[in-house]
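Lab notes, practical 5.
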Amino acid sequence: MRTGECTQGRRGIQVRRRDFLKSTLAIGVGVTAWGTGVKLGRAQGRVPIHALYIPLADHYAAAVMSHATYAAQMHKVEYTVELMQSWPSLQGKFLAGQADVAFVIAPMAMDMFAQKPQFRCVSLVHRDGNALAVNEIFARQLSLPNDRRERKPNAQVAEAMAAWKRAHGTPSICGLPSLLSTHAVVLYKYLKDHGKTLALGEGDGDVLAKPVPPSAAPEFLQHQAKEGNAASFEQSLPWADVVETGGYGKVVWYSKDVLPWPDGHVECIMVASDNAIEEKREALQEVITAIHRAGCDIDAARALGGFALRKMAMAINKHLPLHTVEAIIQSLRADLAVINYANLNVDKAGLRHIMQLAVEAKILKQPVDLDAFADTSFGTDFTSTHG
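Output from the prediction step:
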């Protein structure tokens, strides 16, 4: 069940849709500051859970909707979120013990665990959800369907990338949020499927991957075009759609088609410190439950479309203004189904699939013990998993 089926059965999803229409009218009321730490529960006796996140569509359920819709229902926890400007800053702050929870790309979390195994994966944040976008110079060399549903990871983009290297002697640059990202895994798999190679940071390959912060990725494509360079980025939504709706590039494929997996491939995950798991278990469970319910709400809004989807997009835009309303709507289109919030319990098999490809690509130096890394005890019964 890829879209709409968060709750059990047809009756369940109708209830979720009805509840969503009630709750969406309140979104954005009472949650107005998102730059530092937003406190939601202020009653005495609540246990603090502080979370770190990056502004991505990946994190709408975890960092926006769970607050806007379910703050009043959090009775055990004082849940705060802090927006970080880069993956290294998020990584450093979490490993330094300055947060209970972080929303992290899966290979990075595995690399962090290899360094300091003092946390566990306790939930997924979403599945699928990233895309390859190219700038105008590359786009002019491609024949892309107008319908984004028809843009599949065929050979033409890989061939254009290889042709650029042959013609100029150096590879084109593809911006990734991190070299330790699922995005890097997806790009490696796409190029490998078409007989092409990826260099990570340095070295020789048909494409050279460089870290580019997600929010800087659209500007990166524009700058490369002004310099006369073909370039691309593989980033989380809605950044690829920001480029296309802005008119200076094209979305060429979505990660779900490069890395198909039951219910969608593992992408960003929620990690919690061992201390939070041991000392704040009930509060942590309340946060995870709210995130899973918020994921169902996003899925319900997408299934409804129209006013419900636009209302949600406007609420998200209020808190993350760099994500335009139109780009959010394009990213959450039900007919594309390119990001999935409906199946958020820990998926060990999905984690293993990403890990094995990351090790093969030399994105990760070594595998981690997934039985130690993943804690499945915080699952909820209204989301599903194949773990």
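Observations recorded by the TA: Confidence is low (pLDDT under 50) at residues 1-5, 7-42. Residues 129 and 339 are 4 Å apart (CA to CA).
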